[in-house]
Write a structure and sequence with these properties.
It contains four helices and three strands; from the N terminus they run H-E-E-E-H-H-H. Strands 1-2-3 form a three-stranded antiparallel sheet. It is elongated, with a radius of gyration of 21 Å. The longest helix has 35 residues. The chain has a domain of 85 residues: Sufe protein. Chain: A (Alpha-Beta Complex). It starts with a helix and ends in a 5-residue tail after the last helix. It is of the alpha+beta class and 133 residues long.
Length: 133
Amino acid sequence: MRRFRDNVMPAAVMTVLLAVVFVSCQNRAEMRHVRDMTVGDVDPAAIADGDYPGEFTYDKFTYVVMTTIQRGRISSIDVLTCRNNRHARKAQAVIGSIIEAQTTNVDAITGATTTSKALMKAVENSLADAPRR
């Protein structure tokens, strides 16, 4: 039994530590990718009135929005699925910025950049394939 503990246990602990480091590095790379991604500029005046669902997946979580276009303007954006943490709650302020600016290409919320970008991309995706006027 002592031989097992002396030989196998350190190897098992090392394997777990390496797995944690590997997953952490993957998450950081994905986070960097989301922070650096470009969000397109969608013109709501060119889109037919209606409600359009959109989503964006980041870090095994899918953000879901419903964007409403009325008279060629973004009239509302409902966040249907979002994480429930302080960064996500803070990032939801980007929705007001999108409605005010009438574009998906707005500044991310400081301190919640990655989640802001995920929400912006979900809104962009909701309008990307929407029927045109």
